Structure formats: structure tokens, C-alpha cells
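This section describes the prediction task in plain terms. A model, or a person checking by hand, is given the sequence of a single protein chain and must write out its three-dimensional structure as a string of C-alpha cells. No templates, partner chains or ligands are provided. The sample shown here is typical of the held-out split.
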Amino acid sequence: MAAMEWFTPWFSAPGYGLSRLVLQRALAGIYLVAFLSAAFQFRALLGDRGLLPVRTFLRRVPFRVAPGLFHWRCGDAFTTGCAWAGAVLAAAILVGAADAVPLWAAMAMWALLWLLYLSFVNAGQVFYSFGWESLLLEAGFLAIFLGNAEVAPPVLVMWLLRWLTFRVEFGAGLIKWRGDRCWRELTCLYYHHETQPMPGPLSWHFHRLPKRLHRVEVGANHVAQLVVPFALLLPQPVATVAAGLVIVTQLWLVLSGNFAWLNWLTIVIALAAVDSSPLTGTPSYPATPTWYAVLVCVVTVLVLTLSYWPVRNMLSRGQTMNRSFDPLHLVNTYGAFGSVTRIRQEIVLEGTDEERVTADTVWREYEFKGKPTDVRRLPRQFAPYHLRLDWQMWFAALSPAYTRGWFEPFIERLLENDRATLRLLRHNPFPDAPPTHIRALLYRYRFTTREERRETGAWWHRTLVREFLPPVRVAGDGDGAVRRPGAGT
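The expected answer:
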């Protein structure tokens, strides 16, 4: 230990002890939500009879491209076990288990969390293709080296978390400024609250704010994402103030919509820039172990080297959003809503138990948990929980290209009244027997006006656009495929 005493003054940041504690516990909480999402949804989406079975995917994708435990075993029992193991481990860290064990054991706990979640992300295909998945992995990787109560917070890792916060915010700001012109014209929020993937319970009210205030919101967003991130890299107390501004703007986004754990995780990593010494003083810690200091230095060099690609991407006119440059998702690029849709379209699925489809057929709607269907139902708050199928349905309404691979199996499972699939939905209109036919209609949705809301009690108004999928039924040849019925059948 004594050999490292000369190292402590610059290597350690004891004044950030409380910030590290809150950051680690909150990150464990987000891990817990992520693993619960996997436990409740992975089997139906990606299991043996899922919409995009992991087993089929991993047969054609080598380990070096998508490393993870599921190359070794990927049956439903194993993947479900991994999800619950991750949830239990995250819950243990959340209540302080990592601070009650030796440093090396705490690092092993965080490493196992990261490895388990990496396995889900690299096997999850379109259902795990969101930027907050890579963000959780990158933050989770850095958390392995944050230490525990045995050592002072390492200043290098705290700076790497600041660097991650900078890239999340500045990358998002750049993609907006370079992307849709409505961001430069300050008009994007005329549409965004209404057309975002999954509105929340306050989104209707946000949408109905005066347009002048919407323009102020966009202007404030540009400041928060294009100016404030640089202050995160400045000395204290400027960095703490900048982190506070990031947290406030992220809480505003939490109130206005459902973006899984993106906003909460951004808040968590921003805590790395908060100097907690005015609240706690400067606590004393034992000397830093040599092996730990060397390991942190090696990881710092690795992250800085891998940062070349995200920086190059941010500086490029062809900047891309939410991309990983290595299969371990160690250092990634981020961004959201480079373009904003002006109108909201929703796919509404309907079924019937009638043997023949005619003009008089009675159709009953399937209700999703998060995405709008019933115009009278107030959008719910689900974030930080991630409803993966609901998000994919939003993309599918933008273009049929987004349905490739998973939508037809989804219809097949509905025609079978598949239990696992139906648990992803809020309401099954055929509880006693499967429907005979399923169809999909494309509607245009918009928030009601205040007058319409008072008169009808509805939060949404919808207008039929076209048929998205004509009526289909099980083919009846034993292979579970679906086909369109002939005219009059």
C-alpha cells in the first residue's frame, strides 16, 4: 500500500465520494430495470419461439461479431436465468453489496453485470438496437473501475464518465443542428410531443403549450446540448453547475415522454461532474492498491484510443447516430431525433372470430401497453422501463421496411393466441379462443384540441389512412404460416 502513497494526490478524488456512491447505486437501479425488461420480454421477442429467435441469428453471426454468453447456450431457460441473475445482482449492488466486499470482488460483480447485459444486446437484433443499450454498456464498463468504499474515487474514471456525458449531449446537439431544418428554425417542438415514439401522461399538455414557448424550449435545448457540455470539462464549481443544467434538461424530457432509461442514465453519468465535497467534506480513504491504479490507467488509455472513432463521427458532416464501433460497445456515438416526423401514424391490429370475412365482419382491436390505440386512453408513464414491441410498432408505421423479419411471426403468434406474445400486450380481445383472421389498419393520430377534449373525453383523434395488412389467417397446412384468404372467404 505504501508504495502507492505518492500516487494518491493526483489519482484519487476523495471529494467525489458521495457522487460516486449515488452514481453507482442509480446505475445499478437502471441495470435492474434493463434485466427485468429482458426477463419479461426476451422470451416472447427472441426466444425459441420468439419473433426473431436468437438461435437462428447466432447460427449465422460469429462470436467475434456479436460476443456474448448466448453463443454457448441460448435456450429459453438459460436466457431467462441470465435475465433474473442480472436482476438479482443489480438489486444486490443497489442496496450496497458491492461496498461490503473486497475491491476485486466488487469489480467482478460489475463485470458480470456488464457481460450478462452485453450478451442480451449482441443477440437482441432490432429489439436491442437502441442507443441507450450501448450507453448502458459503456457506462457499465466504466463502472467496473470506479472502485468501492475501500478506495477513493479514481479521478481518471470520473473524467471518463464526464467525457461520456459530453459525447451523449454534444452528439445529440450536433445531429439535431445538422439534421432536420426545424431544429434550426426552432419549430420542431410544434410536432415532437405529438409524434414521439411513446408519449407520456403529460405529452398532451406539453403539445398544447404556446408555440412561442416551444421555440424557447428548442433554443434552450441547443444551449444545453451544444454549449453546456463544454462546461462539464472545466474546473469546479463550473462543472457542477453544468451537470446541474444537464440534469434539469433531462428531467424535462422525462416529464414530456417515454424514452426508456436514456434520460435517467444521462442524469446518472452527469453526476460524475458533481463535486460533493461541499456537502460531505473530504473523506479519507486507504491508499490505492498498485494493481488497481495500473488497471485504471490501462483502461483510460484504451478508452481514449477508442474515442477516435466517435470524435471523428461527431466532426463529420455525415454524422451518424447511436453507433457502436466495436462489438463490446466500449466507446460509442450517440444522438436522437436528427429528424422529426410531422404527422403520427399508428398501426392498429384487429381480429375476428368469424369464419368468413365480409363487409359486415365485426373486428376487435388489440390494445398495446404503451403505444396509442384507444383514443380515450391517457398515455401512461413507462420509462425507464422499455416496451420493445411498442417501439418497433412505431417504426413499422413509418415504413413497412421496419417490419422485416418480425412482423409476420408476430401476426402468427396472435393467430395462435400465444401466451408469451400476448403478455406483451395490454388487452387480448380473444381470451377464450384464437381469432380466425387478423388485419392491420394504418391510422393518422393527432392530439385532440382542448375543445375536442372537453366534448369527447378523448386524448387522440384518428383518421383511417389505408389498410396496412389485408386479413390473414393460419394457412392450415401445419407449418404455422399465415396467408390471405381468398375473396369472400
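For orientation: The mean pLDDT is 94.
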